[in-house]
User: Which sequence fits this backbone?
């Protein structure tokens, strides 16, 4: 009898522990993974300059797809617990993408200036979606900082800082002060953790902020890994707020309209053999 009770108790304890594990670890998936979006929502934003037409229907259903058209800057939201299939035209052919609930997407230009549907960085309708979250490999970060000649007298800003690696590396390696801003709270949490681990909390600041609202007047170096249309959108702000002489270093994408300010461009492979280009500008 006693043994039965013990086994019963053990089952209850293991069950509770498992449930706790699922709720805490799985908490990540229960939590909103993207700001501005709930887990059963899908957002599609159009960050191109033209209207995009697409068709949408639940995946694996024989339902006739709904025809939609989305204007530049607009966002369409769908409440769905199942994957939705979006079909759009690309170079005269229909392309279908499967969209996962809880995820933001955006029609953007690819490197050939063709419209493509990408996973986006956030689903907030009130904030520009400047780029999805992708990291700059550490060796590329090092090269960006070298090219911008970062030293201890600099104040480096990273708009859309991701996990804060550019700001943190500049502080740790060169003693530069730095400010990173990102719209995603998870990224800011990671950045703060990274700064602490690197022991540079006193030199850096990370802010949950819309980068289009960041005051850049104290920056001496600006680092960017944003899409070309976002660089173009921010260019008037750079011209207004950056001090003449400020270095602007970008990963992979140029700043359209700043051709005469480009002073260097370097291509390099990362440790996995992927190619990257770094562009250096002087305001
Ligand atoms: C391509 S990642 C670059 C991350 C980091 N700078 C790096 O190079 O490793 C772009 C980042 O921009 C952020 N982002 C997108 N729109 C934003 C906005 N309006 N304001 C601030 N951050 C934004 C995304 O959350 C994402 O972390």
Assistant:
């Amino acid at each position: 009898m006693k043994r039965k009770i013990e086994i019963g108790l053990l089952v209850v304890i293991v069950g509770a522990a498992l449930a706790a594990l699922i709720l805490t670890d799985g908490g990540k998936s229960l939590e909103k993974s993207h700001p501005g979006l709930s887990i059963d929502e899908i957002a599609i934003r159009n960050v191109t300059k033209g209207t995009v037409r697409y068709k949408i229907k639940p995946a694996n259903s024989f339902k006739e797809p709904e025809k939609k058209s989305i204007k530049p800057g607009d966002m369409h939201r769908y409440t769905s617990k199942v994957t939705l299939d979006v079909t759009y035209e690309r170079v005269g052919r229909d392309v279908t993408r499967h969209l996962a609930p809880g995820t933001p997407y955006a029609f953007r230009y690819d490197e050939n200036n063709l419209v493509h549907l990408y996973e986006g960085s956030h689903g907030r309708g009130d904030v520009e979606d400047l780029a999805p979250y992708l990291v700059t490999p550490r060796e590329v970060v090092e090269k960006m900082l070298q090219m911008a000649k970062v030293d201890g007298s600099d104040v480096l800003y990273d708009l859309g800082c991701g996990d804060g690696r550019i700001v943190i590396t500049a502080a740790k390696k060169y003693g530069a002060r730095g400010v990173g801003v990102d719209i995603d709270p998870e990224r800011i949490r990671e950045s703060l953790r990274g700064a602490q681990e690197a022991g540079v909390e006193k030199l850096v600041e990370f802010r949950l902020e819309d980068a289009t609202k960041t005051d850049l007047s104290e920056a001496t170096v600006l680092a960017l890994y944003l899409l070309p249309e976002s660089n173009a959108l921010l260019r008037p702000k750079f011209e207004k707020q950056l001090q003449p002489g400020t270095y602007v270093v970008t990963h992979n994408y140029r700043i359209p309209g700043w051709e005469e300010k480009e002073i260097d461009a370097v291509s390099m492979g990362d440790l996995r053999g992927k190619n990257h280009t770094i562009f250096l500008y002087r305001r």
Notes: The first strand starts at residue 41 and ends at 46. The pocket of S-adenosylmethionine is lined by residues 121, 127-131, 133-136, 158, 160-162, 165-166, 181-184, 187, 210-212, 225, 251 (CB under 6 Å). The mean pLDDT is 89. The CA atoms of residues 89 and 124 lie 26 Å apart.
